From TrEMBL:
InterPro entries: BchH (IPR011771), CobN/Mg_chltase (IPR003672). Signal peptide: none annotated. GO terms for molecular function: magnesium chelatase activity. This is Magnesium-chelatase, subunit H. It comes from the Eukaryota. The lineage of its organism: Eukaryota, Viridiplantae, Streptophyta, Embryophyta, Tracheophyta. It holds the Pfam family CobN-Mg_chel. GO terms for biological process: chlorophyll biosynthetic process.
């Protein structure tokens, strides 16, 4: 007789074998008979959001992929002529009334059929009641949204389901998919009978459903949902951490796609005028017009709201020449920071590599980093050496607003762009495509002719730059250029659909690690035990020292006693553990590697060497970090507890100081009181604040703070190996109540504070103020290591920089508008995320909302473009402006609010097809 355990194991092995057989069948079946289910995401649930994905033009990409598959012999019968028509097919129900608010219904599944096809359906009733429920349902049937073309089905993945329910958001430690979600995957596998599912873009909900973190079993929802269908997943190359979750939890074969080529933000309106005034000042400062120009610069800077970033004297104030230069230097430095900030313009389309000239900004930034392992010196360093300076000194001087250093840094930046543009032009054909870089490089590097970069630099002050160092750098840049413009995104998809091998490759930031390119690879991350690296530790020390320095200036010369910070999975993969190393350096310990390079031990740094007190930390690990780096959480927890037990004076060891106070207050031991490494409960992700903000389903800020505390107060304990995360809310609250500063890192030019909702979702600034006995708001800082010159800014400065370079920047929003439907959604998303920052930190200036309203609502032409391209997203944008005002984040005129209310009514009518 077979025991129950043996039977379950046999069943599981059979299931795993079936999945392997299904992959093998992809090799055997003909292309014409193969069925493919393309799954797109819609978040938050709204017709204006169908096809959400990071930096991807989803419908243009699907159209491009289907055209290619059709040529290749796949049956895509009835595919429309344009990607716009494809959007209309999917988001409008042709059988309903004109301009229906419903998506196209592909299939109606009766409750009995659903229960027969979905063996785990009864398990969902605990959270969602009896089927069909009210999500993806018409009250009788479960509805599958999408559209079929021949053997290809384009379906809209249902969302988590609790977005609009604040109570479920508040109390859900973990949940389950709803009936509509389960019905979608049952349809794909058992009714449509897909040979493969292609999840289109970063990222959906399937892989974040409750269940184990790794090693799925048939009681884990991602496993039950995906069933035995081969899962292919287009994923952004810069997001290896979430791609790893998709592989571990939904068995995905990921195929990386390129994020759009980065460009410099440039200057516009008053900022451009300021730049011109500064040029005039430099040529006329020694004439009688100097003071007059300074006065114009000060008044223009105030009109541009730069007075929050730079201390400006009153207009017409008597200033010495030295003081004038310092004011101008600081304004100039701020303008250069805005102008040179990198931003991806537009959205990527699968299978369309960037042109050579589009790749220039990416190459300029690749060239700005030293690469000691390859014996490559950065271009700014080589140029600085030419004039007898060290680039680090120039960076420091520019940060302080020393006018001659700001000007020199501008000249170095322009010379770098010019030299690289000259090189790229020499490698392109008349269509702007890169062809035969290797051959062209050989001829460029041949004897007897000047290399293009040398030619360019010969007419600048850097004409004596070291030719050997330049040659080594440009040989490397030539290799990078080939990779940037190579393209295998469609080729790899076709290989995957034929059950063939897709070449693996690292994910991450192509500027830090060009080996991420070309895209079209099956993404992997890194050996989690190898971080932090020595280089990461060096970078971390610089950032921590700057953070402490900045906090001392802002806090009357006092060291911060506690810093509350966030550890992200993706960031630590891209930077090889920089933010992890920051935590270790704050508490004053050093990671120790074994002979295999694995980091599994730490040792304390002496107080003499540290030269400051040990700073206490409260670490909020993202759910993804928890899944990928459990060993590092163990390392951190051991490190903090070790520091708490050191026999040192409490005024030099704030970890010990607070642990002793908390042990006494809570009646627990010092080791338990020194618990500082927190995350979500196992199998659960995020604080859900982002869902509440994106769906406007929250009452007040206290509710958001309760969500954060209830979902993020699960602690890791190195003294209880294998026990998983346990709730320690009291310790969490007491530790947070000592925080003088909150802190996050930005490590990639592609993803900044308002690009995604994760950053504000993890921000505890207002929460800490509520928990502190003195009610004092903590300082909030953001480290920016996206360029060679790492910066620590306040959160408010970073939000302003983000607004100036993205939301309010014509270069960015016109780039987005050029993609139509998807572009409007991208603009709306940035505005919603800005409101998220107001809600969690209160660090958004009024003028940001005022300028956004002027740009998108007061301008009639822009308003009509937004409304016609994507009325649903435009309605959400208008609603977000009204919400910002209603919640007290934006003070504006009664006329503005009245206009927004009228607009909301107009766009509602347009969506519902009502003519008034």
């Amino acid at each position: 007789m077979v025991s129950g355990k043996a039977h379950a194991l046999h069943k599981r092995v059979e299931q795993l074998c079936t999945r392997a057989i299904r992959w093998a069948e992809l090799k055997r079946k003909t292309k014409a008979e193969k069925k493919l289910a393309i799954t797109v995401f819609s978040f938050p649930p709204d017709k204006g959001n169908v096809g959400t994905a990071a930096y991807l033009n989803v419908f243009a990409s699907i159209f491009s992929v289907l055209k290619d598959l059709q040529k290749d012999g796949y049956n895509v019968e009835g595919l429309p002529e344009t990607s716009e028509a494809l959007i209309e097919d999917v988001i409008h129900d042709k059988e309903a009334q004109f301009s229906s608010p419903n998506l196209n219904v592909a299939y109606k599944m009766g409750v009995r059929e659903y229960q027969k096809l979905t063996p785990y359906a009864t398990l969902l009733e605990e959270n969602w009641g009896k089927a069909p429920g009210n999500l993806n349902s018409d009250g009788e049937n479960l509805l599958v949204y999408g559209k079929q073309y021949g053997n290809v089905f384009i379906g809209v993945q249902p969302t988590f389901g609790y977005e609009g329910d604040p109570m479920r958001l508040l109390f859900s430690k973990s949940a389950s998919p709803h009936h509509g979600f389960a019905a979608y995957y049952s349809f794909v596998e058992k009714i449509f009978k897909a040979d493969a599912v292609l999840h289109f873009g970063t990222h959906g909900s399937l892989e974040f459903m409750p269940g184990k973190q790794v090693g799925m079993s048939d009681v884990c929802y991602p496993d039950s949902l995906i069933g035995n269908i081969p899962n292919v997943y287009y994923y952004a190359a810069n997001n290896p951490s979430e791609a790893t979750i998709a592989k571990r939890r939904s068995y995905a074969n990921t195929i990386s796609y390129l994020t759009p080529p980065a460009e410099n933000a440039g200057l516009y309106k008053g900022l451009k005028q300021l730049s011109e005034l500064i040029s005039s000042y430099q040529s006329l400062k020694d004439t009688g017009r100097g003071p007059q120009i300074v006065s114009s610069i000060i008044s223009t800077a105030k009109q541009c709201n730069l007075d929050k970033d730079v201390e400006l004297p009153d207009e017409g104030a008597e200033l010495s020449v030295k003081d004038r230069d310092l004011v101008i230097g600081k304004v100039y430095s701020k303008i250069m920071e805005i102008e040179s900030r990198l931003l991806p313009c537009g959205l990527h389309v699968i299978g369309e590599p960037p042109s050579a000239m589009e790749a220039v900004a990416t190459l300029v930034n690749i060239a700005a980093l030293d690469r000691p392992e390859d014996e490559i010196i950065s271009l700014p360093s080589i140029l600085a050496q030419t004039v007898g300076r060290d680039i680090e000194d120039i960076y420091r001087g520019s940060d302080k607003g020393i006018l001659k250093d700001v000007e020199l840094l501008r000249q170095i930046t322009e010379a770098s762009r010019g030299a690289i543009s000259a090189f790229v032009e020499r490698t392109t054909n008349k269509k702007g495509q890169v062809v035969d870089v290797a051959d062209k490089l050989s001829s460029i590097l041949g004897f007897g002719i000047n290399e293009p970069w040398v030619d360019y630099l010969s007419s600048t002050k850097f004409y004596r730059a070291d030719r050997d160092k330049l040659r080594r750098l440009f040989e490397f840049l030539g290799e990078c250029l080939k990779l940037v413009v190579a393209d295998n995104e469609l080729g790899s998809l076709k290989q995957a659909l034929e059950g063939k091998y897709v070449e693996p490759g690292p994910g991450g930031d192509p500027i830090r690690n060009p080996k991420v390119l070309p895209t079209g690879k099956n993404i992997h991350a890194l050996d989690p035990q190898s971080i932090p690296t020595t280089a990461a530790l060096q970078s971390a020390k610089i950032v921590v020292d700057r953070l402490v320095e900045r906090q001392k200036i802002d806090n009357g010369g006092n060291y911060p006693e506690t810093v509350a910070l966030v550890l992200w999975g993706t960031d630590n993969i891209k930077t090889y553990g920089e933010s992890l190393a920051q935590v270790l350096w704050m508490i004053g310990v050093r990671p120790v590697s074994d002979t295999f390079g694995r980091v599994n031990r730490v040792e304390p740094v002496s107080l003499e060497e540290l030269g400051r007190p040990r700073i206490d930390v409260v670490v909020n690990c993202s759910g993804v970090f928890r899944d990928l780096f459990i060993n590092q959480m163990n390392l951190l927890d051991r490190a903090v507890k070790m520091v708490a037990e050191l026999d040192e004076p409490v005024e030099m060891n704030f970890v010990r100081k607070h642990a002793l106070e908390q042990a006494e207050a809570l009646g627990i031991g010092v080791r338990e009181a020194a618990t500082r490494i927190f995350s979500n409960a196992s199998g659960s992700y995020s604080s859900n604040i982002n869902l509440a903000v994106e769906n406007s389903s929250w009452n007040d800020e206290k509710q958001l703070q309760d969500m954060y505390l209830s979902r993020k107060s699960f602690a890791f304990d190195c003294d209880a190996p294998g026990a998983g995360m346990s709730e320690k809310r009291k310790v969490f609250e007491m530790a947070l109540s000592t925080a003088d500063a909150t802190f996050q890192n930005l490590d990639s030019s592609e993803i900044s504070l308002t690009d995604v909702s994760h950053y504000f979702d993890s921000d505890p600034t207002n929460l800490v103020q509520n928990l502190r006995k003195d009610g004092k708001k903590p300082s909030a800082y953001v480290a920016d290591t996206t360029t060679a010159n790492a910066q620590v800014r306040t959160l408010a400065e970073t939000v302003r920089l983000d607004a100036r370079t993205k939301l309010l920047n014509p270069k960015w929003y016109e780039g987005m508008m050029s993609t139509g439907y998807e572009g409007v959604r991208e603009i709306e998303k940035r505005l919603t995320n800005t409101v998220g920052w107001s809600a969690t930190s209160g660090q958004v200036d009024n003028w940001v909302y005022e300028e956004a309203n002027t740009t998108f609502i007061q301008d009639e032409e822009m308003l009509n473009r937004l409304m016609n391209s994507n009325p649903n997203s435009f309605r959400k944008m208008v609603q977000t402006f009204l919400e910002a005002n209603g919640r007290g984040y934006w003070e504006t005129s009664a006329e503005n609010i009245e206009k927004l209310r009228q607009l909301y009514s107009e766009v509602e009518d347009k969506i519902e097809g009502i003519d008034r």
